[in-house]
Design brief:
heterodimer, A: 46% strand, B: 2 domains
Amino acid sequence: MKTGYLISGLFFLVWILQSGTLQSQTFQDRRVINAHSVEMLPKRKLDLRISHRFGDMFGESGGWETFYGLENAADILIGAEYGISNNLDIGISRTKGAGPLNKFLNGFGKLRFMDQFGPKAPPVSAVLVGIFSYSTMKNSSNPEALSNFKKASHRWVSTGQLIIGRKFSSWLSLQALASFTHRNQVLEEDENDLFSIGFAGRIRISRLFGLIADVNMPLSGYRTAENDFYPAIGVGLEMTTGGGHVFQLNLTNARGLSENDYIPYTRSDWGEGEFRLGFTISRLFNL
Amino acid sequence: MFRDQSCYFCSTMKKQIMCDTMIKHSNCLAAIFLLFAAFLTACNYDKIVPEPDGLDCDAVQLTYNEQVREIIDRNCAYSGCHDGISGNPGNFTTYAGLISRISNGQFESRVLLTREMPPPNATGPTELTQDEIDDLTCWLTQGYPEE
Protein backbone atom coordinates (compact mmCIF):
# COMPACT_ATOMS: atom_id res chain seq x y z
CA MET A 1 0.00 0.00 0.00
CA LYS A 2 2.81 2.36 0.98
CA THR A 3 4.57 1.76 -2.32
CA GLY A 4 1.31 2.58 -4.09
CA TYR A 5 1.17 5.99 -2.40
CA LEU A 6 4.84 6.52 -3.13
CA ILE A 7 4.42 5.77 -6.83
CA SER A 8 1.31 7.93 -7.23
CA GLY A 9 3.08 10.72 -5.33
CA LEU A 10 6.03 10.42 -7.67
CA PHE A 11 3.77 10.53 -10.70
CA PHE A 12 2.05 13.66 -9.34
CA LEU A 13 5.37 15.37 -8.67
CA VAL A 14 6.57 14.63 -12.16
CA TRP A 15 3.28 15.84 -13.60
CA ILE A 16 3.84 19.21 -11.95
CA LEU A 17 7.49 19.42 -12.99
CA GLN A 18 6.93 18.66 -16.62
CA SER A 19 7.88 21.18 -19.26
CA GLY A 20 5.74 22.55 -22.09
CA THR A 21 6.84 21.31 -25.47
CA LEU A 22 7.96 17.74 -25.92
CA GLN A 23 9.65 15.85 -28.65
CA SER A 24 7.35 13.21 -29.97
CA GLN A 25 9.30 10.16 -28.85
CA THR A 26 8.32 8.61 -25.55
CA PHE A 27 10.97 5.92 -25.71
CA GLN A 28 13.86 5.77 -28.11
CA ASP A 29 13.27 2.13 -29.01
CA ARG A 30 10.27 -0.17 -29.43
CA ARG A 31 11.54 -2.12 -26.43
CA VAL A 32 12.73 -0.92 -23.08
CA ILE A 33 14.97 -3.76 -21.90
CA ASN A 34 12.85 -6.86 -21.64
CA ALA A 35 9.46 -5.25 -22.22
CA HIS A 36 7.81 -3.68 -25.24
CA SER A 37 7.50 0.11 -25.01
CA VAL A 38 4.63 2.32 -26.20
CA GLU A 39 6.88 3.42 -29.06
CA MET A 40 5.86 2.33 -32.58
CA LEU A 41 7.69 1.96 -35.88
CA PRO A 42 6.91 4.63 -38.48
CA LYS A 43 4.91 3.38 -41.44
CA ARG A 44 6.88 1.22 -43.90
CA LYS A 45 9.97 0.97 -41.73
CA LEU A 46 11.63 -2.37 -41.19
CA ASP A 47 13.49 -2.91 -37.95
CA LEU A 48 16.13 -5.64 -37.83
CA ARG A 49 16.96 -6.56 -34.26
CA ILE A 50 19.56 -8.67 -32.55
CA SER A 51 19.50 -9.11 -28.81
CA HIS A 52 21.85 -11.14 -26.70
CA ARG A 53 21.91 -12.10 -23.04
CA PHE A 54 25.16 -13.51 -21.67
CA GLY A 55 25.52 -15.90 -18.74
CA ASP A 56 25.38 -15.08 -15.03
CA MET A 57 28.00 -12.48 -14.09
CA PHE A 58 28.52 -13.84 -10.59
CA GLY A 59 27.08 -16.64 -8.50
CA GLU A 60 27.32 -20.36 -9.26
CA SER A 61 28.09 -20.20 -12.97
CA GLY A 62 29.68 -16.75 -13.20
CA GLY A 63 32.92 -15.18 -12.07
CA TRP A 64 36.40 -15.63 -13.46
CA GLU A 65 35.78 -19.19 -14.72
CA THR A 66 33.37 -18.02 -17.41
CA PHE A 67 34.86 -14.49 -17.60
CA TYR A 68 31.83 -13.06 -15.77
CA GLY A 69 29.34 -14.84 -17.99
CA LEU A 70 30.68 -13.57 -21.29
CA GLU A 71 31.45 -17.10 -22.44
CA ASN A 72 27.86 -18.26 -21.98
CA ALA A 73 24.73 -17.29 -23.87
CA ALA A 74 21.52 -17.34 -21.85
CA ASP A 75 19.43 -16.27 -24.83
CA ILE A 76 19.78 -14.87 -28.33
CA LEU A 77 17.09 -13.14 -30.39
CA ILE A 78 17.18 -12.45 -34.10
CA GLY A 79 14.10 -10.81 -35.53
CA ALA A 80 12.44 -8.36 -37.83
CA GLU A 81 9.60 -5.93 -37.19
CA TYR A 82 7.61 -3.90 -39.64
CA GLY A 83 5.39 -0.84 -39.38
CA ILE A 84 2.24 -1.52 -41.40
CA SER A 85 0.96 1.86 -40.35
CA ASN A 86 2.15 4.37 -37.78
CA ASN A 87 -0.09 2.64 -35.27
CA LEU A 88 0.25 -1.03 -36.21
CA ASP A 89 3.43 -3.13 -36.06
CA ILE A 90 4.00 -6.80 -36.68
CA GLY A 91 7.13 -8.76 -35.91
CA ILE A 92 8.71 -12.17 -36.02
CA SER A 93 11.73 -13.50 -34.21
CA ARG A 94 13.63 -16.57 -33.20
CA THR A 95 14.79 -16.96 -29.64
CA LYS A 96 16.98 -19.75 -28.36
CA GLY A 97 15.04 -19.51 -25.12
CA ALA A 98 16.20 -20.10 -21.58
CA GLY A 99 13.29 -21.70 -19.72
CA PRO A 100 12.23 -25.36 -19.63
CA LEU A 101 10.23 -24.68 -22.81
CA ASN A 102 12.52 -23.06 -25.35
CA LYS A 103 13.57 -22.79 -29.02
CA PHE A 104 10.78 -20.34 -29.82
CA LEU A 105 9.48 -18.91 -33.03
CA ASN A 106 7.81 -15.69 -31.89
CA GLY A 107 5.27 -13.50 -33.62
CA PHE A 108 3.63 -10.36 -32.34
CA GLY A 109 1.07 -7.76 -33.35
CA LYS A 110 1.16 -4.35 -31.71
CA LEU A 111 -1.56 -1.72 -31.99
CA ARG A 112 -1.42 1.82 -30.67
CA PHE A 113 -4.93 3.14 -30.01
CA MET A 114 -3.98 6.28 -28.11
CA ASP A 115 -1.07 8.52 -29.04
CA GLN A 116 0.08 11.26 -26.70
CA PHE A 117 1.58 13.06 -29.69
CA GLY A 118 -1.37 12.38 -32.00
CA PRO A 119 -3.69 15.11 -33.28
CA LYS A 120 -6.03 14.92 -30.26
CA ALA A 121 -3.16 14.76 -27.75
CA PRO A 122 -4.59 12.49 -25.04
CA PRO A 123 -2.58 12.51 -21.80
CA VAL A 124 -1.09 9.07 -22.40
CA SER A 125 -0.16 6.68 -25.17
CA ALA A 126 -1.75 3.25 -24.99
CA VAL A 127 -0.76 0.10 -26.83
CA LEU A 128 -2.05 -3.46 -27.09
CA VAL A 129 0.45 -6.22 -27.83
CA GLY A 130 -0.21 -9.88 -28.58
CA ILE A 131 2.83 -12.14 -28.48
CA PHE A 132 2.63 -15.74 -29.64
CA SER A 133 5.46 -18.22 -29.27
CA TYR A 134 5.76 -21.68 -30.78
CA SER A 135 8.35 -24.04 -29.36
CA THR A 136 10.22 -26.06 -31.97
CA MET A 137 11.76 -28.34 -29.33
CA LYS A 138 12.08 -32.04 -30.02
CA ASN A 139 9.18 -33.91 -28.47
CA SER A 140 10.66 -35.33 -25.28
CA SER A 141 10.16 -38.94 -24.30
CA ASN A 142 10.12 -37.99 -20.63
CA PRO A 143 6.43 -37.84 -19.68
CA GLU A 144 7.18 -35.32 -16.94
CA ALA A 145 8.99 -32.79 -19.15
CA LEU A 146 7.25 -29.66 -20.41
CA SER A 147 8.55 -30.54 -23.86
CA ASN A 148 6.57 -33.78 -23.84
CA PHE A 149 3.97 -32.41 -26.23
CA LYS A 150 0.83 -34.51 -26.05
CA LYS A 151 -1.09 -32.04 -28.20
CA ALA A 152 0.05 -29.59 -30.83
CA SER A 153 -1.30 -26.75 -28.69
CA HIS A 154 1.21 -27.60 -25.94
CA ARG A 155 3.91 -25.97 -28.05
CA TRP A 156 2.15 -22.58 -27.91
CA VAL A 157 2.55 -19.90 -25.28
CA SER A 158 0.81 -16.57 -25.69
CA THR A 159 0.86 -13.26 -23.89
CA GLY A 160 -1.44 -10.27 -24.24
CA GLN A 161 -0.31 -6.91 -22.92
CA LEU A 162 -1.79 -3.49 -22.33
CA ILE A 163 0.85 -0.78 -22.08
CA ILE A 164 0.11 2.76 -20.97
CA GLY A 165 2.93 5.27 -21.13
CA ARG A 166 3.49 8.96 -20.88
CA LYS A 167 6.31 11.31 -21.64
CA PHE A 168 6.22 13.54 -18.60
CA SER A 169 8.96 15.92 -19.58
CA SER A 170 11.79 16.20 -22.06
CA TRP A 171 13.88 13.96 -19.82
CA LEU A 172 11.44 11.49 -18.28
CA SER A 173 9.15 8.85 -19.78
CA LEU A 174 7.31 6.21 -17.75
CA GLN A 175 5.01 3.36 -18.63
CA ALA A 176 2.99 0.66 -16.89
CA LEU A 177 2.23 -2.78 -18.32
CA ALA A 178 -0.45 -5.32 -17.52
CA SER A 179 0.08 -8.76 -19.03
CA PHE A 180 -1.75 -12.02 -19.26
CA THR A 181 0.19 -15.15 -20.17
CA HIS A 182 -1.38 -18.46 -21.08
CA ARG A 183 0.45 -21.77 -21.29
CA ASN A 184 -1.46 -24.78 -22.53
CA GLN A 185 0.56 -27.27 -20.53
CA VAL A 186 2.28 -26.72 -17.20
CA LEU A 187 3.66 -28.77 -14.31
CA GLU A 188 1.16 -29.93 -11.70
CA GLU A 189 1.94 -27.24 -9.11
CA ASP A 190 2.09 -24.47 -11.73
CA GLU A 191 -0.75 -22.38 -13.22
CA ASN A 192 -1.86 -22.20 -16.87
CA ASP A 193 -2.97 -18.57 -16.66
CA LEU A 194 -0.65 -15.97 -15.26
CA PHE A 195 -1.20 -12.26 -14.70
CA SER A 196 1.73 -9.94 -14.33
CA ILE A 197 2.36 -6.23 -14.04
CA GLY A 198 5.34 -4.19 -15.06
CA PHE A 199 6.84 -0.73 -14.97
CA ALA A 200 9.42 0.88 -17.20
CA GLY A 201 11.10 4.21 -17.52
CA ARG A 202 13.61 6.20 -19.50
CA ILE A 203 15.68 9.16 -18.33
CA ARG A 204 17.28 11.20 -21.07
CA ILE A 205 20.88 12.10 -20.32
CA SER A 206 21.74 13.79 -23.58
CA ARG A 207 20.58 13.77 -27.16
CA LEU A 208 22.41 10.47 -27.66
CA PHE A 209 22.25 8.77 -24.28
CA GLY A 210 19.43 7.55 -22.10
CA LEU A 211 19.13 5.52 -18.90
CA ILE A 212 16.44 2.86 -19.02
CA ALA A 213 14.96 0.40 -16.56
CA ASP A 214 12.09 -2.06 -16.44
CA VAL A 215 10.50 -4.50 -14.00
CA ASN A 216 8.06 -7.32 -14.57
CA MET A 217 6.37 -9.01 -11.64
CA PRO A 218 4.16 -12.09 -11.98
CA LEU A 219 1.09 -11.86 -9.72
CA SER A 220 1.00 -15.37 -8.39
CA GLY A 221 1.11 -17.21 -5.13
CA TYR A 222 3.31 -19.87 -6.69
CA ARG A 223 5.92 -17.58 -8.26
CA THR A 224 7.63 -16.48 -5.05
CA ALA A 225 11.26 -16.30 -3.92
CA GLU A 226 10.71 -19.41 -1.78
CA ASN A 227 9.92 -21.34 -4.95
CA ASP A 228 12.93 -19.75 -6.65
CA PHE A 229 11.06 -17.29 -8.88
CA TYR A 230 12.04 -13.63 -9.07
CA PRO A 231 10.71 -10.51 -10.81
CA ALA A 232 12.56 -9.70 -14.03
CA ILE A 233 14.45 -6.47 -13.44
CA GLY A 234 16.66 -4.72 -15.98
CA VAL A 235 18.69 -1.53 -16.07
CA GLY A 236 20.52 -0.23 -19.10
CA LEU A 237 22.17 2.48 -21.12
CA GLU A 238 20.75 3.37 -24.51
CA MET A 239 22.80 4.98 -27.26
CA THR A 240 21.30 6.46 -30.39
CA THR A 241 23.92 6.06 -33.07
CA GLY A 242 22.23 8.25 -35.68
CA GLY A 243 19.61 7.52 -38.33
CA GLY A 244 17.31 5.80 -35.89
CA HIS A 245 19.74 3.05 -34.96
CA VAL A 246 19.77 2.14 -31.33
CA PHE A 247 22.43 0.31 -29.39
CA GLN A 248 21.67 -0.76 -25.88
CA LEU A 249 23.75 -2.26 -23.09
CA ASN A 250 21.93 -3.68 -20.11
CA LEU A 251 22.10 -5.72 -16.94
CA THR A 252 19.19 -7.99 -16.13
CA ASN A 253 18.38 -11.12 -14.15
CA ALA A 254 15.95 -12.31 -16.85
CA ARG A 255 17.47 -15.07 -18.96
CA GLY A 256 14.88 -15.33 -21.72
CA LEU A 257 14.20 -12.63 -24.29
CA SER A 258 10.63 -13.50 -25.26
CA GLU A 259 7.79 -12.36 -22.99
CA ASN A 260 6.59 -15.94 -23.08
CA ASP A 261 9.93 -17.00 -21.62
CA TYR A 262 10.96 -14.37 -19.06
CA ILE A 263 7.49 -13.70 -17.59
CA PRO A 264 6.86 -17.27 -16.41
CA TYR A 265 10.47 -18.48 -16.03
CA THR A 266 12.71 -15.84 -14.47
CA ARG A 267 14.45 -17.87 -11.78
CA SER A 268 17.69 -15.91 -11.46
CA ASP A 269 18.20 -13.71 -8.43
CA TRP A 270 19.95 -10.34 -8.57
CA GLY A 271 20.91 -10.85 -4.92
CA GLU A 272 22.84 -14.01 -5.77
CA GLY A 273 24.78 -12.29 -8.55
CA GLU A 274 22.70 -14.08 -11.16
CA PHE A 275 22.38 -11.12 -13.50
CA ARG A 276 23.92 -10.80 -16.89
CA LEU A 277 25.21 -8.36 -19.41
CA GLY A 278 23.04 -8.01 -22.49
CA PHE A 279 22.86 -5.91 -25.57
CA THR A 280 20.35 -5.03 -28.26
CA ILE A 281 21.07 -3.67 -31.71
CA SER A 282 18.24 -2.20 -33.73
CA ARG A 283 18.73 -1.05 -37.31
CA LEU A 284 15.96 0.64 -39.33
CA PHE A 285 15.45 0.25 -43.07
CA ASN A 286 13.00 1.94 -45.41
CA LEU A 287 10.83 -0.51 -47.27
CA MET B 1 -22.75 -1.72 -39.10
CA PHE B 2 -19.53 -2.06 -37.17
CA ARG B 3 -19.04 1.69 -37.33
CA ASP B 4 -22.45 2.25 -35.76
CA GLN B 5 -21.67 -0.11 -32.96
CA SER B 6 -18.36 1.49 -32.11
CA CYS B 7 -19.99 4.90 -32.14
CA TYR B 8 -22.59 3.71 -29.68
CA PHE B 9 -19.86 2.29 -27.51
CA CYS B 10 -17.90 5.50 -27.77
CA SER B 11 -20.75 7.83 -26.92
CA THR B 12 -21.02 6.03 -23.61
CA MET B 13 -17.34 6.64 -23.06
CA LYS B 14 -17.74 10.40 -23.58
CA LYS B 15 -14.19 10.55 -24.83
CA GLN B 16 -14.13 11.92 -28.31
CA ILE B 17 -10.41 11.21 -28.70
CA MET B 18 -10.73 7.52 -27.99
CA CYS B 19 -13.84 7.38 -30.13
CA ASP B 20 -12.05 8.79 -33.14
CA THR B 21 -9.05 6.54 -32.86
CA MET B 22 -11.23 3.50 -32.29
CA ILE B 23 -13.33 4.14 -35.37
CA LYS B 24 -10.21 4.81 -37.39
CA HIS B 25 -8.74 1.48 -36.35
CA SER B 26 -11.89 -0.53 -36.02
CA ASN B 27 -10.68 -2.97 -38.65
CA CYS B 28 -7.40 -3.50 -36.87
CA LEU B 29 -9.15 -3.92 -33.54
CA ALA B 30 -11.53 -6.44 -35.04
CA ALA B 31 -8.61 -8.38 -36.50
CA ILE B 32 -6.76 -8.45 -33.22
CA PHE B 33 -9.83 -9.56 -31.29
CA LEU B 34 -10.41 -12.30 -33.84
CA LEU B 35 -6.82 -13.44 -33.42
CA PHE B 36 -7.24 -13.54 -29.65
CA ALA B 37 -10.53 -15.38 -30.03
CA ALA B 38 -8.87 -17.95 -32.28
CA PHE B 39 -6.25 -18.58 -29.66
CA LEU B 40 -8.76 -18.81 -26.86
CA THR B 41 -10.67 -21.54 -28.67
CA ALA B 42 -7.43 -23.50 -29.03
CA CYS B 43 -6.80 -23.01 -25.37
CA ASN B 44 -5.99 -25.95 -23.13
CA TYR B 45 -5.62 -26.15 -19.39
CA ASP B 46 -3.46 -29.25 -19.22
CA LYS B 47 -1.18 -30.16 -16.37
CA ILE B 48 1.59 -32.67 -16.10
CA VAL B 49 0.76 -34.84 -13.13
CA PRO B 50 3.63 -37.13 -12.19
CA GLU B 51 2.57 -40.75 -12.10
CA PRO B 52 3.00 -42.40 -8.73
CA ASP B 53 6.20 -44.34 -9.28
CA GLY B 54 6.56 -47.76 -7.79
CA LEU B 55 10.18 -46.99 -7.07
CA ASP B 56 11.51 -49.34 -4.41
CA CYS B 57 14.77 -47.99 -3.13
CA ASP B 58 15.17 -50.69 -0.51
CA ALA B 59 15.70 -53.37 -3.13
CA VAL B 60 19.31 -52.54 -3.83
CA GLN B 61 22.04 -50.61 -2.03
CA LEU B 62 23.58 -48.10 -4.46
CA THR B 63 27.03 -46.56 -4.09
CA TYR B 64 29.04 -43.98 -5.96
CA ASN B 65 31.77 -46.44 -6.92
CA GLU B 66 29.44 -49.25 -7.96
CA GLN B 67 26.71 -47.56 -10.01
CA VAL B 68 26.61 -43.76 -9.83
CA ARG B 69 30.09 -42.89 -11.07
CA GLU B 70 29.41 -44.57 -14.38
CA ILE B 71 26.11 -42.66 -14.88
CA ILE B 72 27.78 -39.33 -14.03
CA ASP B 73 30.78 -40.00 -16.27
CA ARG B 74 28.58 -40.85 -19.22
CA ASN B 75 26.09 -37.98 -18.83
CA CYS B 76 27.84 -35.12 -17.06
CA ALA B 77 31.57 -35.41 -16.43
CA TYR B 78 32.85 -36.04 -19.93
CA SER B 79 35.38 -33.84 -21.69
CA GLY B 80 33.99 -30.38 -22.44
CA CYS B 81 31.31 -30.48 -19.77
CA HIS B 82 31.58 -30.82 -15.97
CA ASP B 83 35.11 -32.18 -16.21
CA GLY B 84 36.76 -29.57 -14.00
CA ILE B 85 39.02 -28.19 -16.74
CA SER B 86 36.78 -26.79 -19.47
CA GLY B 87 35.45 -23.89 -17.39
CA ASN B 88 31.95 -25.19 -16.81
CA PRO B 89 30.79 -24.93 -13.21
CA GLY B 90 31.38 -28.00 -11.06
CA ASN B 91 33.86 -30.83 -11.32
CA PHE B 92 31.87 -34.04 -11.39
CA THR B 93 34.81 -36.34 -12.12
CA THR B 94 35.35 -36.90 -8.39
CA TYR B 95 33.07 -37.86 -5.54
CA ALA B 96 34.06 -34.73 -3.60
CA GLY B 97 33.25 -32.47 -6.53
CA LEU B 98 29.88 -34.10 -7.01
CA ILE B 99 28.70 -34.01 -3.39
CA SER B 100 29.42 -30.27 -3.13
CA ARG B 101 26.57 -29.78 -5.63
CA ILE B 102 24.42 -32.46 -4.01
CA SER B 103 24.66 -31.02 -0.50
CA ASN B 104 23.46 -27.59 -1.67
CA GLY B 105 20.46 -29.10 -3.44
CA GLN B 106 21.51 -27.97 -6.93
CA PHE B 107 22.00 -31.48 -8.27
CA GLU B 108 18.62 -32.80 -7.22
CA SER B 109 16.83 -29.65 -8.38
CA ARG B 110 18.38 -29.40 -11.83
CA VAL B 111 18.91 -33.05 -12.71
CA LEU B 112 15.96 -34.80 -11.09
CA LEU B 113 13.24 -32.18 -10.60
CA THR B 114 13.40 -29.64 -13.42
CA ARG B 115 15.50 -32.00 -15.59
CA GLU B 116 17.25 -29.10 -17.28
CA MET B 117 20.52 -31.05 -16.94
CA PRO B 118 21.79 -32.57 -19.14
CA PRO B 119 20.80 -29.68 -21.44
CA PRO B 120 19.34 -30.22 -24.94
CA ASN B 121 22.51 -28.84 -26.55
CA ALA B 122 24.88 -31.20 -24.70
CA THR B 123 27.45 -32.99 -26.83
CA GLY B 124 26.76 -36.17 -24.88
CA PRO B 125 23.34 -37.58 -23.93
CA THR B 126 20.67 -34.88 -23.69
CA GLU B 127 18.37 -36.80 -21.38
CA LEU B 128 18.78 -39.36 -18.64
CA THR B 129 17.03 -42.68 -19.04
CA GLN B 130 14.34 -43.64 -16.54
CA ASP B 131 16.66 -46.26 -15.03
CA GLU B 132 19.38 -43.67 -14.52
CA ILE B 133 16.89 -41.28 -12.91
CA ASP B 134 15.62 -44.06 -10.63
CA ASP B 135 19.17 -45.01 -9.62
CA LEU B 136 20.16 -41.42 -8.85
CA THR B 137 16.91 -40.81 -6.94
CA CYS B 138 17.46 -43.89 -4.78
CA TRP B 139 21.13 -43.10 -4.26
CA LEU B 140 20.18 -39.66 -2.94
CA THR B 141 17.49 -41.13 -0.67
CA GLN B 142 20.07 -43.54 0.70
CA GLY B 143 22.32 -40.62 1.65
CA TYR B 144 24.62 -40.77 -1.42
CA PRO B 145 27.26 -43.14 -0.02
CA GLU B 146 30.64 -43.35 -1.75
CA GLU B 147 31.07 -47.08 -1.21
